[in-house]
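Re: weekly structure request thread

Next one in the queue (397 aa):
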Amino acid sequence: MACDCEVIVFERSSESETGRLPKNGGGIGLHEESVKILKSLGISTEYALPMNIHEDRDRTGRIIRKTKIPFYSAFWGDVHRHLLDGAISAGAVVLYNKNVTSIDERDDGVNLGFSNNTARYDGDCVIGADGILSTLRSLILTDNSNSMETDLVRHAGYYAWRGLVPLEDLPPGADLMFQKGIFTIELSYKSHAIMYYLPRGLNWLIYLNSNSEATSTYHRSDEIVGQITRTATDAELEELYRTVELLYRPAVVDLIKASQRPLPFTNQMYDRKSLSTFSTNRCILIGDAAHPSTPHHLRGSNMAIADGFVLAKEFAFTLNAKCHDLKNSAAVKDVFSRFESQRLKLCNDIVIHSARIGRVRQSVYCKDKQGPHWDTICESSELTEMLGDQNYFTDLE
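Done, posted below.
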């Protein structure tokens, strides 16, 4: 899939900030297809743990549903470091402290402007991969009349507490309650908890509604910079402990209280309206810049990895098999069109379905079925019907 082209990565953070990515950081689920992609590119995945069983439990620990899943667990910091090293080894140039503020798209190329009056750059095309608060999204899609698509982010109406318990700090019996290789979700009323092992500890999340109905609200992306993740105060931690004691069994409570190194933090849940296109003639969005999703499908990072792989494959096809030059705007647009034919509908559907999953698990999707004790009487088939995920998992007897 190699092709002869120059790649420059404009990274808005500083090199020291990128180098200080936490050794642990947040945990992610890597789909087996993502692992195959990384391996095919010569990028190590030795840091990932197999995670092939998904359990849904009620607040008492009763197993509602048990399914087979094709995933691995990993620290995001490990994945990022290996991707960055792989890109640099392949010849990519990484420039830091580069915050794009303008894009001038012409028939013969693209010109980028940056903050702090730094030098402008010319190129054949631009790939915007700057995350859910993407500034490139609005810069690239300037002709899109729907500001709901380009400018606004949607808060899901709930947020997550996230934490990690190092293996040496696990409370007694935790290794029996929560087993390696199993992705566990425990349901309660207007809340759900997730537990799974990472290479150096047990990762957990507790989702809580911001309001009683988890009502969605919209915000300009520049209004919430720095607010998606936040370190908690001592008072907020104490409130978390009291809430968890009301909603979950002792094993979960003990696990949450054991998270002291590092302390838990909060993570607000956002996504965005689906786009009708990811591209213009010479610019394209991928990953969370194109289709940011809530995390309930375990597909956010996986979609970004697949996006990059598919786009690279289409560039290689155009440059090698079709012998086109990227100076030709029609050739670039052809690459983008083939990419969108494979990724646009698929990714947008996942975003929509993930939002549904989150609302079911937060007890606000099927109000007639989700009373205060719904999880304790819910059966496997009923949960599958509400979640609508029968095409994604294989039931285990």
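Residues 20-24 have pLDDT under 50 and may be disordered. The first strand starts at residue 8 and ends at 10.
Next request, please.
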